[in-house]
Design a protein that fits this description.
The complex is a heterotrimer of chains A (258), B (233) and C (266). Chain A contains 5 helices and 9 strands, in the order H-E-E-E-E-H-E-H-E-E-H-E-E-H. Chain A is α+β, with helices and mostly antiparallel strands. Chain A has one domain: GHMP Kinase, N-terminal domain (Ribosomal Protein S5, domain 2). Chain A is globular. Chain C has one domain: Ribosomal Protein S5, domain 2. The longest helix of chain C is centred in the last third of the chain and has 22 residues. Classes of the chains: A alpha+beta (258), B alpha+beta (233), C alpha+beta (266). Chains in contact: A-B, A-C. Strand 9 of chain A pairs antiparallel with strand 12 of chain C, so a sheet runs across the interface.
Chain lengths: 258, 233, 266
C-alpha cells in the first residue's frame, strides 16, 4: 500500500520547495558550479571490529562502510564451491533523512544493495576464496543524494582496508540534468526536482563501468554528456580515495623521518 | 622495459606496476601483459618478478606452516580450530590418540577443550577442503600459559628478522619465551607480566614500523629504555 | 540469495564462441528478439491485463484501479505502484516467499520506465485534491522464466495499461458514485525496455535463459516514444565500457521503435 503522509508534513514540504535550482550565473543552491563535486572527506580504518572499514563525508552525506571476511559462510548451504559469496547490505539509519525512515529494509534499499554488490563484485578476486563469504555493510548515517555512489566509493576502500585482493578500486559518482543543465554530483533537492540522474561506478585503471543507472528523461546526446561528466567526477574522487588509503601508512613514515 | 614504480613505492589495488614480460608475484596479477597491484603495499622486484609487500593481508593456510589457534568446537571425530584464516582448521582425533578410538568411550574434551590454545602444523590444504592440522611433532600441542598477540600475518617475517635476529633479541631483552605462528598469532610467556608487556610492545612497534629500516636497533633501544624506566620507578 | 544454477561448461563455451562469430544458439542475429506474442484483456476481473510471450518467457500483468489518499507532496495526482512476483511455478530457481532482490529490481525497473516517461497522465486521476485519487496497481506476474524478464514484463505492463479501462463516476457529497460506461486510462507515452547481455565482449539483445547464465553483465535501457532515455539499469557481476554503453543506446533506439509498433496499434 502506498505511504500516507499527514497534512502537517504536507505544509512543511511545500514550503521548502525552491523556485530555481540553478541561477543565471550557473551557480547551484549550495554555491557550486555545474561540474563541481561536493567537498569530500574520507577516512580509512575507522572501526575496530570489522576486518576493513572506511568513512566518507560528501557534502551532507555521512556514510560508513565495513567489511567482514573472507570467512566461512553461515548457513553452509549458501556457500559456493568455486568462489566466495559476496553479500552486501545498503541501509539507511532512521535519522538519516528529513522524515524518519523505518529501520526495516525498504524496496529501494534492497534494490540498491543488489546493484551496489554488482558494482563491487567485478573488482574482487572472489575465485581465490571458495566456500567463504565476504560481507559488506554500508550504513547511511546522513543522506543528501548520491548515497549509493558514495557508499560504493567507501565500501571499496573498506575492502582494500580488509586486505582483500582486488583488480582495482571502485569509485562512483552521479551526474544529472537540473533546470535544463547537465550537472555533477547531484544533491537530494537537485535529484528530486531535476530532470534526470545518472549514477555510475567505475574501476578507474581498467576503465570498466560496473554500475550504471538512470532515471528521468534525456536524449541520447545528453546521456553521453552526462556519462562523461560522471566519469570526470569519478576520476577526481579516485585521487581522494587513493590518498585516504595511503594516508595511514605515510604518517608513520613521516613521523620516523623527523 | 616499462616499470612504473620504484622499489618501496606505495601502490593501491589496480595500480599498473609493469608492462611487457614481467612475472606477477605476490599481491599482483597479470592481465593482457600488464601487471597490476591487487593489494595496498610496497613495490618490490627481483629480476623480472614483480611483487607487492602487502600493508595488510589476512592469513591464507600453507602446508608446512606452524600456526597457533583456538579450539572452537569438539566434534565426534576431532576438533575444529580457529586459526584466524578464512577457513577453520580440523584436527583429527586420530592425530592425537594413537590407539584406534571410539567416539563413545574417548573423552576428547579432556585432551583439548573449547577455548584451548594449541600450536599445530598444517599438514594438508587445498581449494576443496578446510586445512588439516597435526600436533605430532615435538613442540606442538596445547599451551597452558602465556599471552596471545595478534599482528597482521604479512609482518611475521619482520618479527622473525634475518636469521631470527629480531625475535632472538626480544627474547634476550625481555626474558620471554616466544612462539610465532605464521598465521599472525604469537604466544608470549614470561616470568612476570611486566616482561610479557615489554614483549607485546615490541611486537606492536614492529607491526607499525615494519616497512622502515633500522628497526631492530630502534626496538632494542625502546626495550632497554623501558626496562630502565621500570627500574627507576 | 539462491546460488545460480550450474551451467554445463561445454554449452557455455559453445554459446560464447557463437556470439564471438556473430551468431546465437537458436539461430538469431545478435540484435534480434525472439518471437513476441501479445494478448490483452485476458483477465476480465482486472481493469486491464495482458499476457506477453517472448520466446518461452511468459509474463502476465494485471492492472487494478482503486481509490485512496494521494501523497502529500503531490496532492493532485494519481498514484502508480508496480509490484512483481517471481511465482515459484515459473522456474525451479524461484522460491515462495516475499519478493527477493530480483523481484524487487524487476518491479522497480518496470516502474521507472513508466513513471519517468510520464506514460500515465496522473493529473487526470485526481478525484478530490488532497483527499481522493485513483491508485493504479500494476502487478507483474512471471509465469515462465526463459530469460529477459525485464523486457517481457515492461511490454506486458505497457500492453496492459493500453488495455485498461476505468469506470465512469461522479462525486456526490464527497463520495464516488459509479456511473455506467468506461474510459480508457489516459496513456500519453509508450516506454519500451531493451535489455542487452554482454558475452565475450559482444552485446546481444534479448538474452534467453542460457545466455543469461553465461553472460558477464546485463544492461537495460528504456526509451520513450520520442527516443529519449527514461531509465537505465546495469545488472550482473561484470562491467561495460563507455563505448559499449553508447553503442547499446543506439541499438536501443532502433529496437524500441520496432517493438513499439507491435504493442501500440493504430
Amino acid at each position: 500500500m502506498p505511504k500516507r503522509k499527514t497534512k502537517k508534513k504536507k505544509l512543511k514540504m511545500l514550503q521548502k520547495k525552491p523556485e530555481k535550482l540553478i541561477d543565471k550565473d550557473d551557480v547551484r543552491l549550495d554555491g557550486r558550479k555545474l561540474n563541481e563535486l561536493r567537498p569530500v572527506k574520507i577516512e580509512v580504518g575507522v572501526l575496530g571490529n570489522a576486518d576493513g572499514s572506511a568513512y566518507i563525508e560528501q557534502g551532507k552525506n555521512k556514510i560508513l562502510a565495513a567489511v567482514y571476511g573472507p570467512k566461512e559462510v553461515h548457513p553452509r548451504h549458501l556457500a559456493l564451491p568455486d568462489r566466495a559469496v559476496l553479500r552486501c547490505r545498503y541501509h539507511m539509519a532512521p535519522f538519516s533523512v528529513d522524515e524518519r525512515k523505518s529501520p526495516a529494509p525498504s524496496r529501494r534499499e534492497l534494490e540498491l544493495s543488489k546493484v551496489i554488490r554488482e558494482a563491487l563484485e567485478p573488482s574482487i578476486f572472489v575465485e581465490y576464496y571458495p566456500r567463504t563469504s565476504i560481507d559488506i555493510f554500508i550504513e547511511v548515517l546522513q543522506a543528501d543524494g548520491g548515497t549509493r555512489c558514495a557508499g560504493i566509493t567507501t565500501a571499496s576502500l573498506a575492502l582494500a582496508d580488509a586486505g582483500i585482493p582486488m583488480r582495482d578500486l571502485v569509485v562512483a559518482c552521479a551526474a544529472g540534468k537540473v533546470d535544463g543543465c547537465l550537472a555533477l554530483d547531484l544533491m537530494d533537492v537537485e535529484d528530486k526536482l531535476g530532470e534526470a540522474d545518472v549514477p555510475l561506478a567505475l574501476m578507474p585503471n581498467l576503465n570498466a563501468i560496473t554500475l550504471l543507472q538512470m532515471d528521468g528523461s534525456l536524449t541520447i546526446e545528453e546521456f553521453e554528456k552526462a556519462i562523461n561528466l560522471a566519469l570526470e567526477g569519478c576520476k577526481q574522487l579516485y585521487t581522494l580515495q587513493k590518498e585516504a588509503l595511503k594516508l595511514k601508512y605515510v604518517t608513520v613514515k613521516e613521523d620516523l623521518e623527523e | 622495459m616499462p616499470l612504473f614504480y620504484e622499489k618501496k613505492q606505495l601502490v593501491t589495488p589496480g595500480d599498473l606496476i609493469a608492462e611487457d614480460n614481467y612475472i606477477a608475484g605476490d599481491n599482483t596479477y597479470k592481465d593482457d601483459g600488464k601487471i597490476y597491484a591487487s593489494r595496498v603495499g610496497l613495490v618490490d622486484y627481483e629480476a623480472r618478478k614483480v611483487h607487492v609487500v602487502a600493508l595488510k593481508a589476512f592469513y591464507v593456510p600453507y602446508v608446512g606452516d606452524t600456526v597457533i589457534g583456538k579450539v572452537i568446537e569438539v566434534t565426534t571425530g576431532g576438533w575444529i580450530i580457529d586459526i584466524n584464516a578464512p577457513y577453520f582448521a580440523m584436527l583429527r582425533a586420530s592425530d592425537v590418540i594413537d590407539r584406534p578410538f571410539k567416539p563413545q568411550t574417548s573423552d576428547l574434551p579432556s585432551i583439548f577443550d573449547v577455548g584451548d590454545i594449541i600450536i599445530a602444523q598444517i599438514v594438508a590444504y587445498d581449494r576443496t577442503r578446510d586445512p588439516l592440522l597435526s600436533v605430532r611433532e615435538p613442540g606442538l600441542g596445547k599451551t597452558m600459559r602465556g599471552q596471545l598477540v595478534e599482528i597482521t600475518p604479512t609482518k611475521i617475517p619482520r618479527v622473525i628478522g634475518r636469521k631470527g635476529s629480531m625475535v632472538s633479541m626480544i627474547k634476550r631483552e625481555t626474558g620471554c619465551q616466544i612462539t610465532i605462528g605464521q598465521n599472525g598469532l604469537i604466544l608470549i610467556s614470561g616470568k612476570t607480566p611486566e616482561n610479557e608487556r615489554l614483549a607485546v610492545m615490541a611486537l606492536h612497534k614492529i607491526e607499525d614500523e615494519s616497512h622502515t629500516s633500522g628497526l631492530t636497533d630502534r626496538v632494542t633501544e625502546m626495550l632497554r629504555k623501558k626496562k630502565e624506566d621500570v627500574e627507576h620507578a | 540469495m539462491t546460488p545460480p544454477p550450474i551451467v554445463i561448461r561445454v554449452k557455455q563455451k559453445r554459446i560464447a564462441e557463437l556470439v564471438s562469430s556473430g551468431k546465437r544458439l537458436d539461430g538469431r542475429g545478435l540484435t534480434d528478439y525472439r518471437e513476441i506474442q501479445v494478448e490483452v484483456g485476458v483477465i476480465e476481473r482486472a481493469e486491464g491485463s495482458a499476457r506477453v510471450r517472448l520466446g518461452k518467457t511468459e509474463v502476465m500483468v494485471g492492472i487494478k484501479i482503486e481509490t485512496g489518499q494521494p501523497f502529500s507532496d503531490v496532492p493532485d495526482k494519481g498514484v502508480l505502484t508496480v509490484n512483481a512476483e517471481l511465482v515459484p511455478l515459473a522456474s525451479p530457481t524461484f522460491e515462495p516467499g516475499p519478493p527477493n532482490e530480483n523481484a524487487i529490481e524487476l518491479a522497480r525497473v518496470v516502474d521507472r520506465g513508466i513513471r519517468e516517461s510520464k506514460a500515465i497522465e496522473l493529473e487526470k486521476l485526481c478525484v478530490e485534491p488532497g483527499k481522493n485519487v485513483f491508485i493504479v496497481f500494476i502487478d507483474v506476474y512471471v509465469l515462465n522464466h526463459d530469460g529477459n524478464l525485464i523486457d517481457a514484463s515492461a511490454m506486458a505492463a505497457l500492453a496492459a495499461l493500453l488495455n485498461t479501462k476505468m469506470f465512469n463516476y461522479e462525486l456526490e457529497k464527497g463520495e464516488i458514485k459509479i456511473k455506467p460506461g468506461y474510459t480508457p486510462l489516459p496513456i500519453i507515452n509508450h516506454p519500451i525496455a531493451v535489455t542487452f547481455a554482454k558475452i565475450n565482449d559482444k552485446l546481444i539483445v534479448d538474452p534467453w535463459l542460457e545466455e543469461e547464465q553465461v553472460m558477464d553483465a546485463r544492461l537495460t535501457m528504456t526509451l520513450d516514444k520520442d527516443g529519449k532515455i527514461c531509465a537505465i539499469q546495469k545488472g550482473g557481476y561484470g562491467y561495460f565500457t563507455t563505448q559499449q554503453i553508447l553503442e547499446a543506446a543506439k541499438i536501443a533506439r532502433e529496437k524500441t521503435e520496432e517493438l513499439r509498433k507491435i504493442l501500440v496499434k493504430g
